[in-house]
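FW: tagging you since you asked about this chain on Friday. Here's the raw sequence from the shared folder, copied in full. Didn't touch anything.
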Amino acid sequence: MVELNRARAEAALAGLWADGCRFLGTRTAILGGAMSWVSERHLVAAISNAGGFGVIACGAMSPDRLAEEITATRALTDAPFGVNLITMHPDLDHLVRVCLEHEVGHVVLAGGVPAGATIKALRDGGVRTMGFAPALALGKRLVRLGIEALIIEGSEAGGHVGPVSLNVLAQEILPHLRDVPIFVAGGLARGDAILSYLEMGASGAQLGTLFAASQESIAHDNFKTAFLRANARDAVTSVQLDERFPVIPVRGLTNNGTRRFLAHQAEILRRFQEGEVSREDAQLEIEHFWAGSLRRAVIDGDIENGSVMAGQSVGMVKEVKPVTQIINDLVDEAIQSLMQRKAG
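HL: got it, structure written out here
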């Protein structure tokens, strides 16, 4: 009877994320979030080899560097993977050509509303396109522009985030946008939580924090240890002191760097008010504070002064696991949840 119940639960889960799996070409509809310095060849290939969908974080890569990373990833996996491109990248058109030349199957367009011409160039080249929808109206607009799948990412996520939680975004978007597969993201660390969103109409889920702390992640041991020690409340968004000098919200672990950033803003504000710096120069000094800080934390292991980007799900990271175990655990948690219901 237990085996029968499990088989039924497995079939139910397969049905719930069937659209996501078909779109990605994978066994599970679990995407790896594109994290700069972390989502490189080793982690991306590990996620794809484990039945998920790895995504290269292009970030500020040059076209040649991206081409190198795609080739290196393909040497590590025969499974599907994608590339995340930032729409504000000054060499976006060239990066698109690199993806087309290397026959990348999927591209995630992030960091702003992509141009219709960019979407068309990718689709004409046979690439499947994904985009981020922080609101229902924008999701509908992206679909009209030709985006084939959406990611709705809540403010619980790590790194650059919007102001709305996944719980609210899911209620706003999932019941009303059924034309394309939608993947949920932000604060996810358990399979039963993913299951709840699948039952609301999602086609899959994107996770970052769990994978950043995996065995295959190239992140420094100090970075991973910081995740193991952190609670959910330790992952906070950057604070803006004055509305005249906007600060892009970034969620990460509080440390000496975040405290210094507040003092830095206060000092710049004082200098601006006393006429020592122009508004433009003051804004640049604020923005430049974190330059190179993510690399310092991820690669160099400076978790006190670097930017330790992490989602609120960091409080559920209790050990450094292989990617295969992470994905298998997520699937098993969803299946166990379904089995318990049927048993009840």
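FW: The chain has two domains: 2-219+314-343, 231-309.
HL: agreed, and The CA atoms of residues 97 and 136 lie 30 Å apart.
FW: great, closing this out.
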